[in-house]
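Structure ticket #2291
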Amino acid sequence: MTKFSWRTAQAFLLSAFFLIGAIGNIFASEQIAADYARWGYPDWFHYVTGSLELITAILLALKPLRFWGAALGTAIMGGAAATVLLHGEYAHAVAPLVILALSVLVGWFNKPKL
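Resolution: structure written out below.
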């Protein structure tokens, strides 16, 4: 029987979060599209965000690439937090900052051996 690992579980939960985010951004609702427009992004930018989130989800699910998925996830969530903070939407910054912190943690646990 395989031993349960909280580090692996955390990586898979983070991967699931990014997968759900990818679906939400690739198939953006009118509200999500309106948010991107309000923040000054072009009409197609939600596809970029969704694609990067999908890549992140895949990388996080693959142990040899988990560090790089965490690094990409950190960058994505840094951008998301910066966007809402710069637009004064402070309450909306909580989720990206929490996911950013979890991405850093997953990256730390999976850093490449030198």
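Closing remark: Residues 6-109 form one domain.
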